Amino acid sequence: MHAAVKNFNNQREQQGLPPVGIGVGLHMGDLMLGIIGSDDRLQGAVVADVVNSAARLEGLTRIYGSSISVSESILSSLKDPDIYNHLIRFWESTRKTRPPAFISRVALTTW
């Protein structure tokens, strides 16, 4: 995605337009994916706490100036997670009835 945005920004630059940027938040877990609506208006939807967590991680890219933010579940599944040295810690609670879940590390990467 970042390579595609870079190419897109090169085209925008030639047209005298300002560049655009994206942030990516990566998290993994179970979710529900489906099509909802009526015959005349259908819409795809994804529902789960992990979707909210990924959106929060994407929001961290703006706060910390990174291109990609990944959760502990993604980071710990990597072959060599220790090479990512820009790590932060934060608390997250996705439901009011559940105590906050601690995500111990979040990797922030700038491309």
Structural features:
111 residues; Alpha-Beta Plaits; 4-stranded mixed β-sheet; 30% helix; 32% strand
How would you summarize the topology of this molecule?
Elements: H1 2-14, E1 24-26, E2 32-38, E3 41-47, H2 49-64, E4 68-70, H3 72-75, E5 87-92, E6 101-109
Parallel strand pairs: 1-4
Antiparallel strand pairs: 2-3, 4-6, 5-6
What does this structure look like?
The relative contact order is 0.17. The longest helix is centred in the middle third of the chain and has 16 residues, at 49-64. Strand 2 and strand 3 (41-47) form a beta hairpin. With 111 residues, the chain is an alpha+beta fold. It has a four-stranded mixed β-sheet with strand order 1-4-6-5. A two-stranded antiparallel sheet has the order 2-3. The protein is 30% helix and 32% strand. The protein has helices spanning 2-14, 49-64, 72-75; strands at 24-26, 32-38, 41-47, 68-70, 87-92, 101-109. The chain has one domain: Alpha-Beta Plaits, CATH 3.30.70. The model is unreliable at 97-104 (pLDDT under 50). The chain contains three helices and six strands, in the order αβββαβαββ. The chain is flat.
